[in-house]
Design a protein that fits this description.
The chain is an alpha+beta fold. It has 4 helices and 6 strands. It binds a DNA duplex through loops.
DNA sequence: GCCAACGTTGGC
DNA sequence: GCCAACGTTGGC
């Protein structure tokens, strides 16, 4: 299976790429995703070795700030069953879990982040999911050509 | 802080 | 099944 590319959004005030870099094994469980479309990517399509752009939303500036890779494919999100977690979902059944997560590992932090403004100004990237009007999806596919173009500018 | 766009909920 | 109301996301 060909390697695939993704973009994961995170608000740096809750979890930034610096936090990922500092995490044990530079790895974290990407939990708490509570959107069905994003869930489907996590549970069905994202595979070990896939590459991920780490994006800071609600940030100044909003930007792609680095790269991570998938170290563990989709598995049931433990936070959904933890009543103390802010992501607890009492309706999720452990036998047939509603929510999934993956593990990601830090690969690199860009010395020069690629800002949303730069992405928007690049015509080769106009079809990126991130740039579509009203796009709020927190886990998005990125095409190979988009990936390469962004690596080139970074 | 504002607000447009989106997803979900729940009454009917 | 429709759709209004609500809560959330996220750029500005």
């Amino acid at each position: 299976m060909a390697k695939k590319y993704w973009l994961f959004k995170s608000e740096p005030s809750s979890f930034s790429i610096a936090d990922l870099e500092k995490a044990t094994n530079r790895t974290t469980c990407w939990d708490g995703v509570r959107n069905y479309q994003a869930r489907n990517f996590l549970s069905k399509q994202i595979a070990v070795g896939d590459q991920v752009f780490f994006y800071h939303s609600n940030a100044d500036p909003a930007a792609i700030v680095g790269i991570a890779q998938i170290t563990k494919a989709g598995y049931p999100d433990p936070s959904a069953f933890n009543s103390k977690s802010p992501y607890f979902d009492e309706k999720s059944d452990p036998i047939n879990p509603t929510w999934y997560c993956v593990d990601i590992k830090h690969v690199k932090t860009f010395s020069k982040p690629v800002s949303l403004t730069e992405l928007k100004s690049n015509l080769k990237l106009k079809n990126m999911v991130l740039l579509q009007k009203g796009s709020r999806l927190s886990i998005q596919p990125v095409s190979e050509s988009e990936w390469k173009e962004i690596i080139k500018i970074s």
